[in-house]
Description:
2 copies of one chain form a homodimer. Chain A is mostly helical.
Amino acid sequence: MRFLEEMLGSFGALEEIRALPIRWDRERFRFWLQQDYPFVEALYRYVVGLLAEAPQAHRIPLVHTLLATVEELDWLLAQGADPKAPVHPVRQEYVDLLAEMGALAYPYRLVFLYLLNRLFLEAWNAHVEGDGPWQELSEHWSAPEFQAVLFDLEVMAQGQLPHLDPQVVAHYLGRILEMEKKTWSLLL
Amino acid sequence: MRFLEEMLGSFGALEEIRALPIRWDRERFRFWLQQDYPFVEALYRYVVGLLAEAPQAHRIPLVHTLLATVEELDWLLAQGADPKAPVHPVRQEYVDLLAEMGALAYPYRLVFLYLLNRLFLEAWNAHVEGDGPWQELSEHWSAPEFQAVLFDLEVMAQGQLPHLDPQVVAHYLGRILEMEKKTWSLLL
Lengths: 188, 188
């Protein structure tokens, strides 16, 4: 968490996202998973783009990250997500942001991949609880294997800091936080 | 093996490769592994290119194929391969062929990925034996996990057959076989 907190600096947006009075239930979960599909598909493409440029030392954690997105897509399909369903404008905006960030230099893309994952998990842990079909996903994300991949991504992201312009990072981090807030607000 | 044999049709090249009087020893293995590095690096890029276009149902076996190339690169490095060493012209020719095939349509690239892997393994099994530092690699390729990935690739490749022009397949298969023969002939 230290790295994330340093990057967030003066951004209060994570606290705002955590504090959203989300009403989480089976109906909202169905909406969430349908809208998660196009986002995870975009994330898959984003990670493939990273793998195309990754040095050998970064590849294993990135391949495991890619595998996690493929497994999540399978899981969403098994839960009834329809890949051809219309995409909510808020999700489309996030998908477009990912595509835009996919054109940045490798060090930025790697750092944002870590931050995206970390922010999402912080919000998920703050809002998702109780019994339901989402437990399998919660268990997946809290499993030691996935935590180990996240830890590797964090170490790799920290290694990129000397190559980053803090203003560029702040710009995109602000937009990622805005998209996370908008996305979670769909469940109010 | 049926699929491979059908694709090979009138090509006698696999038998020729199997019949090469290779002298396999530690010295030749050192040469082989150094020259294998740039080829596996090219194969890594080839598989990343496939993942960029793969439908969801193809992604898990392709991610596992990618993971196998990353692990092989790590293994080659651990055995002393130098990523900056000069590349033998024969290996460079094979690397260039992979890059050329990387521009083909997805169904061809998928079929050739399977055929490349299969042909290599047929040749490896015919030529590599005895005790030595290569046993770990032999065990990796004969492990049930890798055999399962190859089986998945074969099924996926067979599913592409209706989309292929047999003349294009024959052209590239001929060139792949030529490169395999040239590569193994470096060990005579």
